[in-house]
Design a protein that fits this description.
Layout (H helix, E strand, L loop, with lengths): L2 H25 L2 H26 L3 H14 L1 H5 L13 E3 L6 E3 L3 H35 L3 H21 L11 H11 L2 H25 L4
Antiparallel strand pairs: 1-2
């Protein structure tokens, strides 16, 4: 990753933060302010990619940078989960079996919808930017490692998303792995596997579409 690419990412991030503050001021919902913080956490992996590209020939430094990237990378996909804050009641009203649905014209609701949806798409872009760099790096430097990277990374990310969304753990909680593992296995249930599987599938689909478009198959 070049300095120019990093600068472009930073400018997009800055615009999104300004938009988040603006939407929060108009809509007055805390999620829109929190999206700015979530975007910052999602931006950190891009910085790590830039640093890795500069120090990749220094084994110990590059390993530390990669681990930091790995810890923060789930925050990119995590932005997709903020779609749950869309409020159906603000967009439509059920008038009954014979009346059907009445679609409401609520400016604040659609302004919030635009912002949350844009945040989810921004997370996907950040995830792709990080993923494609390391995928290509492993493909060129190590035989077949990129295949395992493609298979296992989405699962690890999905576990991280589950820990953040439902157990309210943060990236820095990974500094205490014993506590994280204890919390995870204490709260594990059938929904855990479904949720992790679902978000792993979402990532497989996103990355697969990227490769298909890259090869101009679609």
């Amino acid at each position: 990753m070049t300095k120019k690419q990093l600068f472009n990412h930073f400018m997009i991030f800055l615009v999104f933060v300004i938009l988040s503050v603006l939407v929060f001021t108009i809509v007055d919902r805390g999620i829109h302010f929190m999206l700015a913080w979530n975007a910052f956490l999602a931006f950190i992996p891009v910085v790590m990619v830039y640093l890795f590209s500069r120090y990749k020939n220094k084994p110990y430094i590059s390993m530390i940078i990669f681990l930091v990237w790995l810890f923060f990378y789930p925050n990119s996909i995590y932005l997709i989960t903020d779609l749950i804050y869309l409020n159906q009641d603000a967009f439509m009203q059920d008038e009954g079996m014979y009346q059907g649905l009445l679609y409401l014209q609520d400016f604040n609701a659609y302004f919030g919808f635009f912002h949350i949806f844009l945040g989810a798409m921004y997370g996907v872009v950040l995830a792709l930017s990080s993923f494609k760099y390391f995928y290509q790096y492993f493909k060129e430097k190590y035989h077949y490692i990129h295949i395992f990277f493609f298979i296992f990374l989405p699962v690890l990310v999905s576990v991280g998303i589950y820990l953040g969304r439902f157990l309210r753990l943060n990236t820095w909680n990974l500094l205490n792995p014993y506590n994280v593992m204890r919390e995870f296995f204490t709260n594990i249930n059938g929904f855990t596997f479904v949720y992790i599987g679902l978000f792993s599938l979402i990532q497989y689909i996103i990355f697969s579409f990227y490769f298909l478009y890259k090869k101009q198959i679609l």
